[in-house]
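Researcher: Here's the sequence for the chain we discussed earlier.
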Amino acid sequence: MGSVRRNPAITERPEAERPGADRPPLAVAPASLSQLSKLAPAAILLVVLLAVYIPVLIEMVRDWIRDPNYNHGFLIPVVSAYLLWTNRQKLRAQTRAPSLLGLLGLLAAGTMLILGTAGAEVFTQRMSFLLMLASLVLFLYGWGHLRLVGFPIAFMFFAIPLPYVIYYGLTGPLQALAAKLAVVGLKGAGIPAVVQGNMIHLPQTSLEVAEACSGIRSLYAFLAVGALVAQATPIPLWGRLCIFALTIPLSVAGNAVRVWGSGMGAYLIGPEATTGTVHELFGIVVFIVALGIFVLLKKVVGKLWSSAPSSPS
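Model: Thanks. This is the structure I predict for it:
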């Protein structure tokens, strides 16, 4: 048999000198495994949670589509998700300290869901979803994490339509209040006007402050914006609550100005001035002006609070 010839230009290297011989086998870093092990329970429970609540959430989205008062519901979860994203570094750095109190919250949320389903009370079912989310965070991660995600979860309340009992309990008084304030403004402008419930009687015509003009839509929007602004203001909790409370009188006053503008248009031009594009544009302008006043008052409250002597929280 012939001998095997070797190319003299090719020299064999010892095993230890071969490229990559010192590299260990590919493996998942321990840190990555640790993070996955921490996220796995939360991911599994979140999937189960969504599976349980999917009928409730689908019906709520339908309400957002059907009812113009709650069209803003599509925006609320997006804002909450953004707030969570901005806190992602703090959440990663927060020490995990699970609390058994979260288990009580989970049981309470489950009870609310069962009772709401049995009684066909959708508001209770939807509120149980928020309680379930908060309790899940507390049970798996602890109070530190709940403090960071508490506001984004609570902010989603503004996406939940009010119960009809509360809704109609608010719209009636708001309609009457808007009519009374508008008549005060009309009389101040020298226009004879009489209010009767939610009706405004002018010399040539009468206007009805309808349900759509009660201001409940702008009030809900104002409350949501006020909550965001108050949360972002670096002052103690009581100061932020004061800022948030300013949204209620400003919203009511803004709606009264809008009704007053309709009365002025009906008196000077005719009933056609109370509908159409001009009427809608006037309402948008009033809302923007009221929002500007709110931002100005927020700055004033913030400065007054920060300049006041410090006191125990």
